[in-house]
C-alpha cells in the first residue's frame, strides 16, 4: 500500500473549510475541475509531496494483527455497504427520523454493538445506545456517536462511518479481552435524527440527550401532518414530557463526547491526509421568509397594479446574495462589527436559499403568497446576528417599496462550537499514531480544520466538552450517491479511534 501525503499550511486553509459542504451534491467533472483549480490558486505555495510505502499485506502476521485489518477495515467496510442498502426508497438511499428503514438500520447496529460486547438499549427519542462499563461503572463516561438518519438521495458514509468506526474499535477491545479494563465507561450512541429532513428541525436525537430539545418540539408536524410525538408513539415507544426531560444526561456523569465524520469538503484530499482534527464548527441559523401579496389573474392584472410576492421574493433573494458576498459593504458603517468579525464574515459566511414554495402555485395565477428558506452559516456568532439583522432591514425596506407584507421566522439557531483543546490534542495524537502504523513515519502534522457543516457535536457541546475527527472523502462530495471514502481511510478512522481509546485503559 502506498499513500502519498501532501502538506500545506492548514492554519491558512482553515477559513476555506468553513464554507458549507454539508449540502454538497453532484458536481460535473468539469465544474469540479474548475472548483479544485480555484482552490489551488488561493494558496501561493504548492504543497510538498511525501510518498511513504508500507505494504501491510507483505508484512508479518503480527503486524497485520497489530493493525486489525479484518475488523477495522474489511468488516467495517462490509457493514457500511450493508447499512447503505437499508433505505425507504427503492432507487436511492433515504432514512428519515423513525422511518421503517431507520428502525431496520437501528436493529442492524444493535446487533453489531452486541457483537462488540456492548449492552444496548433504545431511548424514547429513538436513539440507540451501546455501552461498555469498564472497570468503574460509576466513573464519568466517554460518549462516541454520530447519526443513523440520512438526507434524501444520500451517500452511505455520512453519519454511519462515525458509528461503525466506534463499534469496530470497541470490538477489537472485546476480542482482546480489554473491554473490561477500560478505566471509564464508553458509550456509543447512534442518534435518531441529525439531518432534520422529516421535521425540519435538526439534532432531535442529540439535542434530547444534551437537554436542549424543547418539549414543544414534540408537536412539530411533518408534511403528512404527523407530529414527532405521533411518530414516536407509532414506533411503539411511549413519549411524555416527563420522560423526554429525563432523557437529559447528567453533566457529572459524562467525561466528554467524540465524533468521527466524513469531512464533506475537499481539504483533506488536497493535503493528502486521510484524517484531520476539527478545530470548531460554524454557527448556523435557518429562517423562513413569508411574502404575502395580492393574488390575481395572470392575464388581466396590469403590471403597474400588481403586488406580486414572487417578484418581491426574487429581489429579496438577490439582495441576500449581495449581502453574503460582501458583508463588509453593508455592516462596516454601523460600527457594531469589529474588524475581526468583518474579516471572519468575509472568509466564512455562506447563505443559501434552498426551498421556495408558492400558493396557489399555478402558471396562470399571480401568487398570493411565497415562502422561502434561508440557511446562514459563519464561524462568528456576533457576525451572524449582524447579518440577520441587516437582512431583516433589507426585507422590510424592499417589501414596503413593493407594497407586500413580509414576515421572518427563525426556525433554527446553533452557535459556533470550538472543540476542546485536550480532546483535540488526544485525537491528533491518535490519528498521527494510526497513520504511522499504517504507512511508516510521517514528517508533517495531522491537519487541523474548521467545519462549515453542522454535526451532533454542536448539540452535545451543551452537555460536555467535544472533539471531532474528520475523514477524507473523494472530491469533497457529500449528500450524494457519489459520496465515497476509500477502504483504507475507513481503516485509518477505526485505527485512530482505537488509539484514542487506548488512553482510557
UniProtKB/TrEMBL annotation:
One of its GO terms (biological process) is purine nucleobase metabolic process. It is found in: Endoplasmic reticulum. GO terms for cellular component: endoplasmic reticulum. Its EC number is 3.5.3.9. GO terms for molecular function: allantoate deiminase activity; metal ion binding. Pfam families: M20_dimer, Peptidase_M20. InterPro entries: Amidase_Cbmase, Bact_exopeptidase_dim_dom, Peptidase_M20, Peptidase_M20_dimer. Keywords: Endoplasmic reticulum, Hydrolase, Manganese, Membrane, Metal-binding, Purine metabolism, Signal, Transmembrane, Transmembrane helix. Gene3D superfamilies: 3.30.70.360, Zn peptidases. The chain crosses the membrane at residues 33-53. Residues 283-395 form the Peptidase M20 dimerisation domain. Its cofactor is Mn(2+). Its main location: endoplasmic reticulum. It catalyses: allantoate + H2O + 2 H(+) = (S)-2-ureidoglycine + NH4(+) + CO2. Involved in the catabolism of purine nucleotides. Can use allantoate as substrate. The sequential activity of AAH, UGLYAH and UAH allows a complete purine breakdown without the intermediate generation of urea. NCBIfam families: hydantase (TIGR01879). Belongs to the peptidase M20A family. PANTHER family: ALLANTOATE DEIMINASE-RELATED. Homodimer. This is allantoate deiminase. It comes from Cucurbita maxima (Pumpkin). The lineage of its organism: Eukaryota, Viridiplantae, Streptophyta, Embryophyta, Tracheophyta.
Amino acid at each position: 500500500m502506498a499513500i502519498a501525503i501532501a502538506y500545506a499550511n492548514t492554519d491558512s486553509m482553515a477559513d476555506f473549510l468553513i464554507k458549507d459542504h454539508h449540502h454538497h451534491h453532484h458536481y460535473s467533472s468539469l465544474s469540479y475541475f474548475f472548483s479544485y483549480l480555484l482552490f489551488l490558486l488561493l494558496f501561493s505555495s504548492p504543497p510538498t509531496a511525501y510518498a511513504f510505502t508500507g505494504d501491510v499485506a507483505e508484512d508479518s502476521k503480527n503486524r497485520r494483527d497489530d493493525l486489525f485489518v479484518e475488523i477495522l477495515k474489511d468488516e467495517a467496510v462490509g457493514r457500511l455497504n450493508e447499512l447503505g442498502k437499508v433505505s425507504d426508497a427503492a432507487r436511492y438511499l433515504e432514512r428519515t427520523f423513525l422511518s421503517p428503514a431507520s428502525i431496520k438500520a437501528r436493529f442492524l447496529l444493535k446487533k453489531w454493538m452486541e457483537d462488540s460486547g456492548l449492552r444496548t438499549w433504545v431511548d424514547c427519542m429513538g436513539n440507540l445506545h451501546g455501552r461498555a462499563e469498564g472497570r468503574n461503572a460509576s466513573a464519568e463516561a466517554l460518549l462516541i456517536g454520530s447519526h443513523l438518519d440520512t438526507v434524501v438521495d444520500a451517500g452511505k458514509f455520512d453519519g454511519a462511518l462515525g458509528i461503525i468506526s466506534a463499534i469496530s474499535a470497541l470490538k477489537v477491545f472485546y476480542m482482546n479481552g480489554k473491554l473490561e479494563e477500560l478505566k471509564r465507561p464508553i458509550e456509543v450512541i447512534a442518534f435518531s435524527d441529525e439531518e432534520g429532513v422529516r421535521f425540519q428541525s435538526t439534532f432531535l436525537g442529540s439535542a434530547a440527550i444534551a437537554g436542549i430539545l424543547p418539549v414543544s418540539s414534540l408537536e412539530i408536524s411533518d408534511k403528512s401532518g404527523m407530529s414527532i410525538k405521533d411518530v414516536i408513539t407509532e414506533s411503539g415507544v411511549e413519549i411524555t414530557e416527563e420522560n423526554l426531560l429525563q432523557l437529559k444526561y447528567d453533566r457529572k456523569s459524562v467525561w466528554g463526547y467524540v465524533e468521527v465524520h466524513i469531512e464533506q469538503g475537499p481539504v483533506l484530499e488536497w493535503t493528502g491526509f486521510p484524517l484531520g482534527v476539527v478545530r470548531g464548527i460554524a454557527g448556523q441559523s435557518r429562517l423562513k421568509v413569508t411574502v404575502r401579496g395580492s393574488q390575481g389573474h395572470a392575464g388581466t392584472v396590469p403590471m403597474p397594479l400588481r403586488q406580486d410576492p414572487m417578484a418581491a421574493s426574487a429581489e429579496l433573494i438577490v439582495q441576500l446574495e449581495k449581502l453574503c458576498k460582501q458583508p463588509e459593504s453593508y455592516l462596516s458603517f454601523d460600527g457594531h462589527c469589529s474588524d475581526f468579525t468583518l474579516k471572519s464574515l468575509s472568509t466564512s459566511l455562506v447563505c443559501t436559499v434552498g426551498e421556495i414554495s408558492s400558493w396557489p402555485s399555478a402558471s396562470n395565477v399571480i401568487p398570493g403568497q411565497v415562502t422561502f428558506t434561508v440557511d446562514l452559516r459563519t464561524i462568528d456568532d456576533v457576525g451572524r446576528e449582524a447579518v440577520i439583522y441587516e437582512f431583516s432591514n433589507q426585507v422590510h425596506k424592499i417589501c414596503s417599496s413593493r407594497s407586500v407584507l413580509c414576515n421572518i421566522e427563525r426556525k433554527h439557531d446553533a452557535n459556533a462550537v470550538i472543540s476542546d483543546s485536550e480532546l483535540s490534542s488526544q485525537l491528533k495524537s491518535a490519528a498521527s499514531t494510526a497513520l504511522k502504523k499504517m504507512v511508516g513515519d510521517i514528517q508533517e502534522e495531522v491537519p487541523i480544520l474548521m467545519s462549515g457543516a453542522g454535526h451532533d457535536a454542536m448539540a452535545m457541546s451543551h452537555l460536555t466538552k467535544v472533539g471531532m475527527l474528520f475523514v477524507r472523502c473523494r472530491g469533497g462530495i457529500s449528500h450524494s450517491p457519489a459520496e465515497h471514502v476509500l477502504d483504507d481511510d475507513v481503516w485509518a478512522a477505526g485505527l485512530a479511534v482505537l488509539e484514542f481509546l487506548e488512553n482510557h485503559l
